[in-house]
Structures are given as C-alpha cells and as structure tokens.
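#onboarding

Welcome to the new folks! Below is a worked example of what a typical request in this channel looks like: someone posts a single protein sequence, and someone else replies with the predicted structure as tokens. Don't worry about understanding the tokens yet, we'll cover that in week two.

Example request:
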Amino acid sequence: MERLDLCSKLAQEAGRMAHLGFGRSGISMKGRHDVLTEMDAKVERFIREQIAARFPQDAVLGEEDGASAGLAAAEHVWIVDPIDGTANYARGIAHYCVSIGVMRRGELIAGAIHDPPHDRLYWAGRGTGAWMNGERIAVSPLADIGAATVECGWSTRRSTEAYLAQVARVMAAGCAMRRAGSGALGLVDVAAGRVEGYCELHINSWDCAAGILLVREAGGFTNDFFAGDALNAGNALIATNAALGPALSEVIGIGLSK
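Example response:
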C-alpha cells in the first residue's frame, strides 16, 4: 500500500505541475506525430526524484528518460508517462494526463492517472477495485454491440492500412468509433463505463500500464499486454467491458487474456 499511496500522490502532484504549462509549453518534435514539450522532461524528473527518495531500490521506466539502471533485476518497476496526450496538451486541448504504474516481479500492483483539466484522480491497487476521486468506478454493463462505443488508438508504428482496417471492422459491427489522442484516458473511459472498448495496434507500456490495472479492477478485461518484451518494446492492446469482451475481441482482432 505504500507504493500505491505514493503512486496516487505523485500522479496528482505531477498533474497539477503539468497543468501550469498547459497550452503554453515550448514544443519540439520527436517524430512525425510525436510531440515533446518542455514540461514532459520537468514532470518526469520530479516523479523520478520522488521515487528515488522514497524507494531508492526501485527501477523506473519513463517515456522521456528511458530505463534506469538495474531495470531487469529490480523487484519493483515504476512505469511513467509524464504527459500522455502531449499533442493535445501542447495545443491547448484539455485531454491529457499523467500516468504512473507499478509492477512487482512482472505483475501490475498499483496504478494512478491524474486528469488535470478536470482534476480527476483515478487509482487502483491489485485487489482494491478502481476509484475516481474517492468513488468506486466500474465498466459499462452494455451488452448490445450495436450500441457500443470503441476508441481506436492510432500509432505510426503500424501501417495506416492496418489501422483503417481495424476501424472498418469496428464500425461494420455497428459500434460508434472515436479517437481522442490519449491512450491512458481511453483506458480510463473504459474503466469508468463511458465507452465499452479501447484498442490500439501498438502502444507503449508507459501509456497504458496504469490504465490496464484500472480496467481490470473495474471489472473489465484486457489482453496479456506484458507478454514477451512489451515492457520495453510495447504491444497491441485491447480493453473491454465484461459483457461485450468476447464479441469486441473478435471484431477488433486482439485476443483477451484468460
């Protein structure tokens, strides 16, 4: 519980720090569509410093500064995205967050996501359920695929043709489709019952570690995202509510874990 408490506290403090630069931070480009702001680096340094002060033996994997020494041997690994939805953040679009997950021996044990524009703190510990600002959240009970909403995240690491094919399958099944530019908040929306599914052909671990635990603790399902080298290299991702899990998995083309 000590790491869960720190995880939640850091996500909220880092989110409030990030919000001070919302829409005003300097911008550079990491890739064709990957935006880096000055605040990303500042927020990640803050999170790393706080973890090191409290749990110096733990390793950190962050989007901006990569893996700390001893990642492979560490019992606990913190997985940090200082600002998920950076393009939104840099352009003054109020849809971004700070995401922090914690693994112990390869298993997610804690996760927290802070949504600064709405001051919403989401957190979950393994076996604790999923929570938003002190209130329990749960996935949607919807069982009609024709009334479902699915967010289809997009990544330049897979072809445009593959992405459009996935979107076409989702829409052909009768689902509404959306894309809002933050994988972490897309998973939050599944956990809170706002949408029935989230999928992405490739997503990095720091974008989704906390959100995966939130979905599972809210009663939903995901694939076995961390199979193989996904911690470092990323993987495909699906997250769904319970009622539509098998049907959405077939439509999206990514299998759920058992």
